[in-house]
Amino acid sequence: MESYKLPISVKGIVFEDNSVWLRKNERDEWELPGGKLDRGEQPSVTVVRELQEELGFEVEPIKIVHAEIYTIKESLEVLILSYLCKLKSKTGNFELIGEAGKAEFQKFSLSEIPNLNLPELYKVAIALGWEEYSKL
C-alpha cells in the first residue's frame, strides 16, 4: 500500500463572549483561523503563531479537540487539527491580506454557527471545543 502524504493545517478555536472567531476563505466559506504546519514545528506552536499572525491574538493552546482529513476538492486533501485555545490578550491587528488573498475575520454567536456557510467538520470542532471550554 502506498504511503499517505498530505498537508497538515492547524486551526484555533477561540471563544470570546459566547462567540467564536472565524475567517472567511477564498472559497467564500467561513473556517477556523489557522494555517499550515511548518516542517519541524509542533502543532501547538503552529496554532500560536498563526493566530498571532492572522488575528493579532496571543493564545494558549489547551488541547486538540478534533482531527479530520478534509477534501477541499477532488485529489486535494488536508489533515485539519483543531485546537481549543484560551485567549490571553489581543496584541495586534487583523491580517487584511493573507497567504490565500483578502482576509476577513468575524466573531459569531454559537446560535449562528448552524446556518453559516461553514464546512461540517468545523461545526463539529466548534461544538466539541465548546464542550471542553465549558469545563474550564
**Main sheet attributes: strand count, strand direction, barrel closure:** 7 strands, mixed
Q: Output the helix-strand order.
A: EEEEHEEEEEH
Number of domains: 1
- The CATH architecture comes to Alpha-Beta Complex
CATH class: Alpha Beta
Question: How much is the radius of gyration in Å?
Answer: 14 Å
Give the amount of beta strand, in percent.
Answer: over 45%
Do you know the CATH topology? Nucleoside Triphosphate Pyrophosphohydrolase
Low-pLDDT windows of residues:
none
The separation of the N and C termini measures 43 Å
* Assembly state of the chains shown: single chain
CATH superfamily (homologous) name = Nucleoside Triphosphate Pyrophosphohydrolase
Give me the number of helical elements: 2
Instruction: Determine the structural class based on helices, strands and strand pairing.
Output: alpha+beta
Q: Helical proportion?
A: 10-25%
The counted number of beta strands is 9
Mean pLDDT: 92
Give the CA-based shape. globular
